[in-house]
Design goal:
By secondary structure, this protein is mainly α. It is built from 19 helices and no strands. The longest helix has 30 residues, at 197-226.
């Protein structure tokens, strides 16, 4: 991990200067794309309707445009994952175990409970029962997919340990291959929503297995043929604008498809956002406090808290569209997740940064400065991170 001076660590402005234009104004670009999508959907309903009906085979509900754009987002992220870094995680497993506990045991089940309580009980006077179950399914799908694509941005904003973040992403992706579909099917079944297993498994294969395998194969081949420096400095750099454009275009299309729902059901959007907000702040706070309790370094705890709270909304939107259609209540719920998540996660980043000194006071004097030291990094690096 690169050495940071005390002034650079203490001054948030110095970190902001290192961000590129997209990262610096991330919330602004997202909001512009959301607004542009709604405007497009309202002004050109025939065009958006035609695009939304383009599918990979009749009845598949896999939209061609969305699928291609999501691939362009996911594949570069898969290229960044070094599965060889998993070998060193056994030397300091606490941060990873806490993240996995929140991601897979707390978040999906907690969201199912929150969605049921708020959408089907507390807000029953404003939401029809069938729609409430549909929205609940969308929130379950959203919570069952741990964040992947945006994790690296969150980690960078909080000065997280990049190697450990890679491990967290890699392990989450591997678990997602086997756990995502069963968890969604089980929780949606509890919520009285029938999810065709074949369609859901197909979505996992299309949006996780294939890009993961393609990313691993591409990374392996190019690292051997061209070396690490060329791969990271030349090859990956070419995908950065592609990823950004794909993300922005995906947001435009998603909000264009949902323009009528978002404008005609704005009150419902507000109601759906409430359990999402509670989930994000509760899970990030729970992860952060557990990390502090078990004396995990701040540069592992802060991105871990963000991973524990955020969602793989690209996959969630794709699966919801695949299962229920682009105009469904489930798809709307995942889109509300997109609407809420980015601005809220940026606020969580700020909270983690502002509380760094408070967090580290628990570790000072504990005598275990090297307990979770990054393999290969000098002890002084950990001392600065703590």
């Amino acid at each position: 991990m690169p050495t940071r001076t005390a002034s650079a660590t203490a001054d948030p402005a110095s970190r902001t200067k290192r961000l590129n234009l997209f990262e610096r104004y991330l919330s602004l670009w997202v909001l512009i794309c959301m607004a542009a999508g709604v405007v497009l959907g309202k002004l050109a309903p025939e065009f958006t309707g035609t695009v939304s009906r383009l599918e990979f085979g009749q009845g598949s509900q896999v939209n061609i445009a969305i699928a291609v754009l999501i691939w362009l987002m996911i594949f570069p992220m898969m290229l960044k994952i070094d599965f060889g870094s998993l070998a060193g995680v056994g030397q300091r497993p606490r941060g990873l175990l806490i993240t996995l506990f929140v991601n897979w045991l707390v978040k999906p089940f907690g969201m199912a409970l929150l969605a049921w309580l708020f959408l089907q009980k507390f807000f029953a006077a404003w939401i029809e029962p069938e729609l409430a179950r549909n929205y609940t399914a969308g929130l379950i799908i959203l919570a069952a997919a741990p964040c992947t694509a945006m994790v690296f941005v969150w980690s960078y904003l909080t000065e997280g340990d990049p190697a450990y973040t890679l491990v967290q992403v890699a392990v989450n992706d591997l678990i997602m291959l086997f756990a995502f579909a069963p968890i969604v099917m089980f929780l949606c079944g509890v919520a009285n929503v029938v999810v065709p297993p074949r369609v859901l498994i197909t979505s996992v294969v299309v949006f996780i297995v294939i890009p993961l395998a393609a990313g691993w194969l591409t990374r392996t081949v190019l690292l051997k043929s061209h070396g690490k420096e060329w791969f990271e400095q030349k090859f990956l750099a070419k995908f950065h604008p592609v990823t950004i454009l794909a993300l922005l275009a995906t947001l435009v299309l998603i909000f264009a498809f949902q323009a009528e729902n978002l404008t005609s059901k704005w009150f419902t959007v507000v109601l759906i956002a409430i359990p999402i907000l509670i989930q994000v702040y509760f899970n990030s706070g729970l992860t952060y406090m557990l990390m502090r309790l078990f004396r995990v370094p701040h540069n592992v705890a802060s991105p871990g808290a963000l991973i524990g709270a955020s969602n793989f909304f690209e996959l969630a939107v794709a699966v919801a569209i695949t299962l229920f259609g682009p105009g469904s209540g489930a798809a709307l719920a995942t889109v509300v997740g997109v609407l809420v998540e980015v601005p809220v996660m940026l606020s969580v980043c700020q909270i983690c940064n502002n509380s760094r000194n408070w967090y580290q006071r628990a570790a000072l004097g504990s005598g275990d400065a090297d307990l979770h030291r990054i393999p290969g990094n000098p002890p002084s690096t950990v001392a600065r991170s703590r």
